């Protein structure tokens, strides 16, 4: 067994015994890189990636083109690195009970935050619900740049009608920002609420999500909504 093989075996045994809790971030990344590099040293590559982007999370958030500019990162390694945050989001989303009733901002946040996990640009989604506030799905309508996503009110109304929704909630994220609504966010919420009201569908809330924090516009800006309660 070569030096690198012996080192890998020790890392595997450490993970089996301890999990990742006590791994430094470069050690966790080194271990992850085993998936794309069957043999050889990945410690140096882990250090180069963290030195280039600043942290493990920033490595995983980096565009695939920038990852491939780092020496030692080929297409397979870049794909593995981009796969991880999306798989984590898929896992968290899959754990949510689809029978949940979204009748409070806290429940809405618990349901929606995993769906934005790993997204690095501003995205807008809508959740059509039945008359008991049970979600019928989560539809991502647009994705923009880091601080903006286009909004089509007509598309929101169209999807709400198509899914036979009784109520709808919408959400968008502020990547690397604070969950504070802009004047445009407030104006858009008013416009969406009015447009849905025309087809007898109620907008229950508009959540702004930023990492592990959120703002319920229903709670903080109730005048933006036609209906008077969540």
TrEMBL record:
The lineage of its organism: Bacteria, Bacillati, Bacillota, Clostridia, Eubacteriales. Gene3D superfamilies: 5' to 3' exonuclease, C-terminal subdomain, Cytidine Deaminase, domain 2. One of its GO terms (biological process) is proteolysis. This is DNA repair protein RadC. Keywords: Hydrolase, Metal-binding, Metalloprotease, Protease, Zinc. Pfam families: RadC. It comes from the Bacteria. One of its GO terms (molecular function) is metallopeptidase activity. InterPro entries: MPN (IPR037518), RadC_JAB (IPR025657), RuvA_2-like (IPR010994), UPF0758 (IPR001405). Residues 101-223 form the MPN domain. Belongs to the UPF0758 family.
